[in-house]
Amino acid sequence: MKKIFYTALSVMLIFSSCKKGFEETNRPWKDATTADLNTLYNGVVKSLVLTWNEQSVGNSWIYPITQQAAVVGTTGYRMDAASSDIWKDYYRTLSNFRKMDKMIAESADQSKMGNIQAMLKVLRAYKTFKLTDIFGDIPYFEAGKAADGNAYYRVKFDSQKAIYESLLDDLKSAEAALSTSGGQVSLGAYETFLNNDIAKWKKFANSLRLRYAIRMYDVNKTGAQSHIREAMALPLLAEGEDIGIWPAKVGLTLEGREWAHSGAKYRMGTTAWNLISSNNNPDGSGIFDQRAKIFFETNVSGKWVPREQNPIASSVNDGGDPYNRSNRDANWDNKGATNAYSNVNYYLGRDMNTIPELMITAAEVNFLKAEVYARGMDGNAANMVSAKTEYESGIRKSVNFWTKIAMDAPLWIVNKPTALPTAAELSWISTNPKVAFPVGASEAVATKLIYAQLWLDNFRQPYEAWALLRRTQATPMETVNAEYYTANFAIYKRLDYEQNEKVYNAENVSIATNGVNAQTWLATKVWWAK
Amino acid sequence: MKQLYLRCVSILLFCLVAATTYAQTRVTGKVTDQSGQPLPGVSVTEKGTKNGTSTDANGSFAISVAQGGVLTFKSVGLLPKEVSIGTSTTLNVNMEEDQQALTEVVVTALGVKREAKSLGYSVQKVGGDDLVKGNAPTLSTGLMGKVAGLNVSQSNGIEGGSQRVVIRGNTSISGNNQPLYVVDGMPLDNSQVSSKDNDINSVASYKDWGTVMNFLNPEDIEDVTVLKGPTAAALYGARGGNGVILITTKKGKMKEGLGIDYSYTARSNDPYRYQEMQNTYGYGGAIGLYSAVKTLPKDADGVERYPAADIWSNSGLTGDNERYHSHGPIPGGLNSWGAFSWYGTGASWGAKMDGRMIRWWDGTMRPYSPQPDNLSSYYRTGNTQSHNVSISGANEIGSLRVSYSRQDNKAIVNNSEFANNTLNFGGNIKVSKKVNAEVTGSYINYNRLNSPTIGNADDSWGKFSTYGMSRDYQNIEQFLYINPDGSKHKLDNSNYPMSYPYGGYGREMYWKLYQENTYFNHDQLLGTAKISGDLTDWLSFMGRASANFGADEMEKKFKPIDVAGLDGKYGHELYKTTDRNLEFLLTAHKDNLLGSKFNTSFSVGGSSWATNYRAIQGWNDGPFSIPFQYFLGNINKPLVNASDIQPKEQRSRQKINSVFGIANISYDNFLFLELTGRNDWSSTLPSATNSYFYPAASLSYVFTEHLKLGNMKNWLDYGKFRIAYAGSASGTDPYMTTYVYDSGLFGGLPSRAVQEKLLPLDLLKPQRSKSYEGGVDLSFLKNRLGLTFTYYKVNSTSQIIDMGLAPSSGFGAARTNVGELENKGYEFTLRGTVIKKDDFSWDLTLNGAHNQNKLLNLMEGINEYNLNDIFGNNGVRMKVKVGENYGTIYGTDYIYKDGQRLVEKVKDVNGNVVGTRYVVNAASDQVPIGNAVPKLTGGLSTTFRYKNFSLYGLADFKWGGDIWSGSYSTAMGNGLAPATLLERDGGGLPYTYPDGTKANHGVILDGVFADGTKNTDVVNYMWKYAGVYAAWSDINMPRSAAILENSWIKLRELRLTYQVPKQILQKSKFVQNLSLSVIGRDLFYIYTSLPDRLNPEAINGIGNAQGIEFGAMPGVRSFGFSVNVSF
Q: What are phi and psi of B246, to 5 degrees?
């Protein structure tokens, strides 16, 4: 019996010693087990790249909603595909922001990390504004913290107002904190967004502050005014300082853009056409705005034919295939035999390596300032002279910007501009009746012009154009068969919450939406919307 | 001490002297079984004495017995026999097999053999002969319908594919629910063969290369013992928590003659059961809505021509003729997909196939006539042949069996086949008088060419059959796909200006089938060495070492599509699995402990298991640099990302070490108690929690041996009650305990992100389950009737699950110990011998099982878990919700108002009403629409024996349980199902088409509008079918419409065997045994609740979501014969 006992005991000892190798056996063999601020920060910048479905839904839904383009068919892309991508991308990144906040707080060098903290604040503000503008109220203050415990697994939704106010304060404090003085911990080469250009960071923060303060002006004038006033007084983005993800700078290939484009069914609509051409001549002789040939191209017959923004009896079916990469790369003119309408320029989607994914342009800053002057939003009296100056400067910058985009894209071959337009070529800005800013313009006339040009400058930022439309209800609109637009597109005031959020945070979603169904919720305005 | 010694010696001497004083007879003889085979190891004892011996390898024995004494012959599995000794000194005894469980011996955990009556839990044995009776292609299919509570389902696919095996239902919410397989002591998971970019867990689309068990040769299996549930499997840890299938391979036996057995089986596999389709109307979508008589478009020369797919297909059909496109505009201008979703080019709402000559899409004039056989045009009759030769022998020293098997399969789809070679070795040797060594080993070499794509993929013929192929489809692609120079003949507008009408669905089918080849090779070496013996008369030992080494290789050669041989692709993947298991068991036993009626046995043991899996997958996306050469480096393009050429890697390692103890105590041979305890150390858990203990206990009470039952004894032979409890615990998958970051690159520098899966804040703990079972085993009327019944309840808790989190938490899932899943059910077998005569007998066995899985709780605030889905929100999804039964199917459903379905008017762009549609709930709010779990499953087998003939049949059944049938849904939506003819053939309501023509083609969708008014709008029949069933896009369809109850009874196996009589064989001098059989397999469904000959066994995949079908392959039946001969 003793023998058995000792055998068993020795066996147990053998086994308990075997356990020693277990940790090594179970150690992850490929994944990184550590991360530092540099790499996490770089990951946050990476998250600024647009998600694929955000773009495909933009092309099939947001363009016809904003009327920046018309569609000749449905694509089958569902709006909730974009909801899912945008929502998940944001909160995944938010958890990284939280992680970095914690790492900084625990760092011995915390006091030297003011710049890093400020950069993070600005990027977080940008991403959060973008999200709340698309969805309305969202979880924010307690969101992204599940790593702190299961109390944060299902968090409440915060009001868009509270989020706006908090983020604007963040932008203000971040701008103030950004410093070029020595002694700051630097992200070095890992600062892949603005390459440690502190001055540019400040301009970016101020410009965002101006954009979003203006966005809430009509619903929160007192809150907005001081931000607008302060931002107007601080350095803002100037020509050549357009902010976005510039793929060439970071060695990126934007496959999602090309993919989203290839399935799109958008065409130049009458709404945009009316803003860039003086007449409907199919030879394009009425085109005055150089951006026309950058944003759009002719149909298969080489004609400029805008698609009726709201189809009418004489509308024809366009079975063209203008975004078929293999066809078009081989033969630019091969747009599909039945391509009846002018297309959104093939190159805009086909280019994956040079055209930026824009966040805010210098031209937009001019238009924002123009609105401030025209409406006296900074507390001063309206100043139409300054408004006109900013307005015209904005158009000029926008035309130059887009011309340069086309010039710099190696893929761009057909109708490629070779130089920036001359002053004479830009004279339409002050002379064309569709564009010219009258000297004694009323606020309504002035803002309509400003919004139209901002709307056009936003051509590759359809979600921004959508925000402008929802805020102002004064962006360009086709009046022919407007009922069609009302029935099919005007109803969309936001995207619906993401599916998993509805499943796993059901109670809070229900509180946020008052329990209304998805269809009703999509048609419910966000806080700042008109 | 010395005194004691002397006393003993003197007693012994006295006994010897006394013994010699009685008259003794020396008896010699031979013990054989019913077929005359010698029986080694039979215990031969003189009744009432301790005098005994046992038979040797030849079945011979010799014993001295008192004159007039009685010899008792006993052996496990045989009916005991008593023979009185007369004056004869030679005694040949024939022993009968025990047909019932009275003294049946079963192999239990760790390979320990136990008498069935002593077991307090449920096990069921299937003999190797029964396994191969119906020439089942695999071990798993051989078990179909034979074991109560063991559900074997085949996935949608062809022979060589995987089976899902589940015992007593699902015990894991998210994990693997299949049992553990133990082959001669080596535990193996029945994992599926991996291949790059092939999601074998998908219910939508996959290629099925089979599972590990596919490679084992059923002919080499001695028997299979199914240990049901964790009670029986307590000693395998929770790896056995889903039950254990113990496989014992054949060992050597003493045989007459040369000891050589040979068998040959040939089976022809006939795909015969195709979905029933209408054969009246052909190609067209929107065209169904324009006019009472559907027409075909005309070419410029006025000749009728084949229609085309999309309006952007450059088909030459413009203007008014756009309506002839499958996806042309509907009257009023809406796109057809805006009305009916993306329904595919299979839509057959077009012209009548009346035989008129039209210009086909390839430009040739062909008759527009019904094509009833177009579904089958892809398939061929396959066949499977196997040869098995074995040599077997035994003597006093030991035994040996060596066998070789070769199996060849020609698949029912073209360009696919496999061959399996198995070399099997089993032997034991008596190392010394008390020590026995046993070695078994198998070498398996399996090669397969291609496995068809299943489900929702563009090269899946199953999908094409309903989604891509219209009813007028003529399979000319099979002749067109390749140019005479061997390059790909593109089915595009350049070759076919009328355009190819089946979109992307049929275009690549044949090129992929014949020219994109995958070669799969599997090599496996599986072996066990075991030493056992007695150290003393009360202490025995067993030590066993097992190893499994598997190597898989996949080579994917995609032939260049160009003449130059450059535009090709190549993939090369290597997989390596190494498993090893070491075990020992030390057993002390004592019968009649201290003179009492207690028999006791105590064992302690230990085991150490380790597994190591590695894979490398390389892919060359082309173009090639060297024409027609297939290797990874043969690439000629500037590489954009390093990842373009980097091979992918996978690894998985884990270890489990264990100690365990078993105590068996029995009283007076009627009461048996077994207690076990096991402690595991798992490498997959954090070191603080990776040691865990779990106990089990079971009690068996054979009341017929205990109670005086009086007259009952006349009809009740045997009765036993049993109860058991078992705890069980397990670790999880490797690499789950360390926090890791997602890594990437941006701007040329590394980037990191917090991983989407959140680790638990406290340590991961082992998953636990508790199970209870109770049952009764009865045998009546001299064993003519037998019944076993078991009720069980299993509660699985602390499951390690990646619980979905709201994204706003910052994470996609939290890995945590949560949830409780309860399994309740019963299972029974009823066995009867209806007739038992010398040369005629008829046996029947029925088994059945019912299981209910219920999710009792999950994580606080979270009450559902997603299993799988097809088409996401737009299709159907299976998920488990707290309080609901496992297996619920979710999807969109009708919305009701005052008990009536809600309908709405569909309007065109100008506001004109063009149709009516049911209102369904939003796709994001899927509701329960069915449940896939059957109410009862089981099998009925029967054997008739008449003289030298025996007829065996097995029917298995599944009663209850729903499926969402994508094939049905698509056929209804596309106008392929026979039911869609009703209105088209004039059986509808009077209806006026937009062009003024009238026909009885109208329908009213039964329902009310939102304002409560009854719908009386007569609309075109397409709104009843295409508007309800069609497909998936932003148009929501009620998925509940294609939920069908799937109950069936199938004649699974049929075999008629003729045993050539011994007298005839003896004349040959060398043939010892010869039997000839004809075999039918999967012959037909005796009953099926599904309409339109839908395949009831075409569920996609072998995962936990077992209620989704799409792209079903046809039903296949097999006919064959086999010859078994012994020399």
A: -90, 125
Where are the alpha helices (H) located in A277-361, listed in sequence order? 292-295, 325-330, 346-350
The H or E element spanning position A243 is strand A243-245
CA distance, residue B650 to nearest chain A CA (Å): 9
Confidence of residue A17 (pLDDT cuts 50, 70, 90): low
A31-35, B309-313, B342-346: least confident range: B309-313
In a 10 Å sphere around its CB, with 0-12 CB exposed, 13-18 middle and 19+ buried, how is residue A245 labelled?
A: buried
Buried b (16+ CB within 10 A) or exposed e, B747-767: bebbbbbbbbbbbbeeebbbb
Is A18 close to B640, i.e. CB distance below 8 A? no
Q: A361-365, B153-157, B497-501 — which one is most confidently predicted on average? A: A361-365
What does chain A come to in residues? 530
- Of B748, B752, B804, nearest to A39 by CB-CB distance is B752
Beta bridge partners of B879: B866
**What's the complex ipTM?**
0.93
Concatenated DSSP letters for B506-520? HHTHHHHHHHEEEEE
Pick B806's closest partner by Cβ from A98, A189, A501.
A501
Contact A27 B748 (CB under 8 A): no
Q: Do A28 and B864 touch (CB under 8 A)?
A: no
Write the residue in A19, A43, A152 that is nearest to B753 by C-beta: A43
Distance in angstroms (rounded) separating the CA atoms of residues B21 and B86? 19
- Under 8 Å CB-to-CB from A381, ≥6 apart: which residues? none
Q: What chain B residue is nearest to A39 in terms of C-alpha separation?
A: B751
pLDDT tens digit sequence for B169-187? 787 777 778 888 988 888 8
Spatial separation of the C-alpha atoms in residues A480 and A377, rounded to whole Å: 34
DSSP code at position A150: G
- Interchain CB distance below 8 Å, B604 and A7: yes
- Asked if the Cβ–Cβ distance from B809 to A31 is below 8 Å, we say no
User: B860 and A150 in contact by Cβ < 8 A?
Assistant: yes
The predicted structure's pLDDT at residue B10: 45
Quote the CA–CA distance of B459 and B506 in Å, as a whole number: 7
pLDDT tens, B696-743?
999 999 999 888 888 888 889 889 999 999 988 888 889 888 889 999
Helix (H, G, I), strand (E, B) or coil at A411: coil
pLDDT exceeds 60 at position A199: yes
Residues in B closer than 8 angstroms to A498, CB to CB, are 807
Q: Which of B648, B658, B809 to mutate to test the interface with A (most CBs of A within 10 A)?
A: B809
Residue A489's CB is within 10 A of a number of other CB atoms, namely: 18
Residue from B323, B330, B808 to probe the interface with A (highest A Cβ count within 10 Å)? B808
Q: Other CB atoms closer than 10 Å to residue A333's CB: what's the count?
A: 11
Please name which of B978, B969, B976, B984 lies closest in space to residue B1029, comparing C-alpha atoms.
B969
Q: What pTM did the predictor assign?
A: 0.84
Write out the two tokens for B717.
């032979």
Q: What are the structure tokens assigned to A19, written together?
A: 């356990």
Among B318, B683, B809, select the one facing A22 at the smallest CB separation: B683
pLDDT per residue as tens digits for the range B613-666 = 999 999 998 899 999 999 998 998 877 666 667 889 999 999 999 999 999 999
Chain A neighbors of B741, CB-CB under 8 A: 31-35, 39
Distance from CA of B795 to the nearest CA of A (A): 25
B710 Cβ partners below 8 Å, 6+ apart?
Answer: none
3-state secondary structure of B680: strand
Nearest-angstrom CA–CA distance, B91 and B473: 76
Rounded to a whole number of angstroms, the distance from the CA of B335 to the nearest CA of chain A is: 7
Chain A positions touching B332 (Cβ under 8 A) are none
